[in-house]
Structure to design on (363 residues):
């Protein structure tokens, strides 16, 4: 076993409540450092978050969800698309705390190159989509964004509404499962580096959060509601650190390498780098009531595929979803890959598996 693998295994044994507050988590290789101890963006394995395909046309689109909130997305179509015919389509959701420019645009373009119509959306309360307070957590509205995207795609003249799939990355993996349970128009459901955002907040990694610790988190958020109701500043929780030091957690180092370096940093218009990736503290506890895997078997016989790195600590969530799901399911373990690796490292992402899954099930 390499030292890196040994360190990772030891970390997984000891990760606890400090990890629970991160919101979106990962463990793999730490960010590299230059001689002056400043982080160096790790562009290995073809990291290419801001990929721009020459084979795909891009169009900014907007549509309302059932709450009359505008959802904004990037619609990608092959440049040679025959708009007089009807084609399969896929909705792509970004990691929790991210925006469509981070990971989901990459996946949407790569799938569009294979002939699919794809739509990468900004979640409500994030990016260019509407919703106040910004960075608010609302699992039901998050799931609704995917159904609203199906509404939009299914009413386009060049889309076959009977051949629409969904893809959720990181936290969006749990949101697409939540949506698919009550929206049978989603014919094929795939997740990459999925997080069950409910379990991650209730239990932390490896069920390391105690009930008393959970109750304290809830109590703190409840008290903060009073502060904000009477005019106090909005407080945020989790997310990615703004600086690194010798004590920075290994998970934070991996996320920092994506969200705080040129590899993946993106601050939407009107937002602040101080709060990107960070949900509001008072709303984040709504994840405590979020159980996306309950009744996951009812999605069957529609097919599901769960892709995760075999070195990702988030692997437990994909494995649990696979265990609970009904027939027509597949678990794909990517050798040597951590959680964030599958956001943008094109040499590690199993494109062949994704393409085959959607071509088979949206045919």
């Amino acid at each position: 076993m390499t030292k890196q693998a040994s360190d990772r295994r030891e970390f997984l044994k000891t990760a606890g409540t400090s990890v629970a507050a991160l919101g979106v988590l990962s463990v793999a290789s730490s960010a590299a450092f230059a001689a002056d101890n400043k982080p160096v963006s790790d562009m290995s394995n073809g990291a290419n978050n801001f990929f721009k395909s020459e084979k795909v046309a891009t169009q900014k689109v907007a549509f309302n969800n059932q709450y009359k909130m505008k959802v904004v997305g990037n619609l990608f179509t092959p440049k040679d698309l025959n708009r007089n015919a009807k084609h399969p389509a896929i909705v792509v959701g970004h990691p929790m705390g991210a925006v469509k420019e981070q990971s989901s645009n990459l996946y949407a373009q790569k799938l569009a190159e294979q002939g699919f119509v794809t739509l990468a959306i900004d979640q409500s309360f994030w990016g260019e989509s509407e919703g106040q307070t910004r960075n608010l957590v609302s699992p039901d509205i998050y799931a609704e964004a995917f159904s609203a995207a199906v509404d939009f795609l299914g009413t386009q003249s060049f889309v076959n509404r009977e051949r629409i799939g969904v893809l959720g990355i990181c936290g969006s993996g749990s949101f697409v499962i939540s949506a698919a349970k009550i929206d049978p128009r989603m014919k094929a459901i795939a997740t990459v580096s999925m997080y069950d955002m409910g379990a991650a907040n209730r239990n932390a990694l490896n069920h390391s959060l105690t009930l008393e610790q959970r109750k304290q988190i809830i109590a703190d958020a409840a008290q903060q509601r009073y502060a904000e109701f009477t005019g106090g500043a909005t407080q945020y929780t989790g997310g990615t650190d703004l600086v690194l030091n010798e004590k920075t957690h290994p998970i934070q180092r991996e996320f920092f390498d994506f969200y705080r370096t040129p590899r993946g940093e993106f601050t939407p218009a009107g937002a602040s780098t101080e709060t990107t990736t960070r949900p509001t503290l008072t709303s984040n506890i709504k994840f405590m009531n979020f159980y996306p895997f309950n009744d996951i078997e009812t999605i069957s016989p529609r097919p599901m595929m769960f892709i995760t790195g075999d070195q990702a600590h988030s692997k437990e969530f994909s494995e649990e979803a696979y265990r609970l799901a009904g027939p027509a399911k597949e678990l794909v373990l990517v050798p040597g890959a951590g959680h964030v690796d599958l956001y943008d490292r094109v040499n590690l992402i199993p494109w062949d598996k994704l393409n085959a899954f959607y071509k088979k099930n949206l045919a």
